[in-house]
């Protein structure tokens, strides 16, 4: 198991979600670290590429790797994926939620701010709700899945506001 690597990676890439994971039962923490670390990889796509096309290629690579797991693969040497693979094979993590996360991150590749507050709320919903739904499946709190959208959107809004200085330093703006 790659738990120490995943924990360290997440602690650096997304300290808020790392702290959140510490409230989960110990048995599922490595799975949460894998999920959140996977998400951090998607989030950093925009800052790692010089143009939209390269970003789309990177996201497509992640999409292909997830699809391989759904087709029976084991995630290979990628710690995030090899840790999530058993959950996926058991049918615990819906494919469409991974697809939604990947699709939502394509918006990051365009230098276009949402046109309205509603657009920003939609962006926050699309980028956080599928992740939180997957998290709830991992911690076996499926009863909350239908209720997580508002919490996710608000968390995404807070996360976006916290990132405003960084985004502006990169000549990016997510505020309408």
Helix and strand arrangement:
Blueprint: H1 3-13, H2 15-21, H3 29-43, H4 45-48, H5 52-70, H6 79-89, H7 95-106, H8 117-138, H9 148-169
Helix pairs in contact: 1-2, 1-3, 3-6, 3-8, 5-6, 5-7, 7-8, 8-9
Entry summary:
This protein is mostly helical and 176 residues long.
Uncertain segments are none
Topology pattern, helix = H, strand = E? HHHHHHHHH
Helix-and-strand structural type: mainly alpha
**Number of separate structural domains:** 1
Q: What is the percent of helical residues?
A: 55-70%
Q: Kindly state the number of beta strands.
A: 0
Give an overview in words.
This is Phytoene/squalene synthetase. InterPro entries: Isoprenoid_synthase_dom_sf, Squ/phyt_synthse. With 176 residues, the protein is mainly alpha-helical. It has one domain (3-169): Orthogonal Bundle (Farnesyl Diphosphate Synthase). It is built from nine helices and no strands. The protein is globular. The protein starts with a helix and ends in a 7-residue tail after the last helix. 31% of the residues are buried. The mean pLDDT is 94.
Keywords:
Farnesyl Diphosphate Synthase; 9 helices; mainly alpha; single chain; 176 residues; 0% strand
């Amino acid at each position: 198991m790659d738990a120490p690597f995943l924990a360290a990676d997440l602690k650096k890439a997304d300290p808020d979600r790392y702290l959140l994971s510490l409230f989960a039962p110990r048995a599922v923490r490595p799975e949460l670290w894998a999920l959140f670390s996977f998400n951090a990889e998607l989030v950093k796509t925009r800052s790692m590429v010089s143009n939209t096309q390269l970003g789309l290629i990177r996201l497509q690579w992640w999409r292909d790797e997830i699809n391989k797991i759904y087709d029976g693969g084991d995630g290979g040497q990628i710690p995030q994926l090899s840790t999530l693979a058993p959950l996926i094979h058991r049918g615990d993590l819906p494919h469409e939620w991974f697809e939604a996360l990947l699709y939502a991150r394509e918006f990051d590749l365009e230098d276009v701010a949402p046109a309205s507050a509603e657009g920003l709320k939609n962006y926050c919903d699309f980028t956080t709700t599928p992740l939180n739904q997957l998290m709830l499946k991992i911690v076996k709190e499926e009863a909350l899945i239908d209720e997580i959208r508002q919490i996710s959107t608000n968390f995404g809004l807070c996360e976006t506001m916290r990132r405003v200085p960084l985004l502006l330093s990169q000549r990016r703006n997510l505020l309408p």
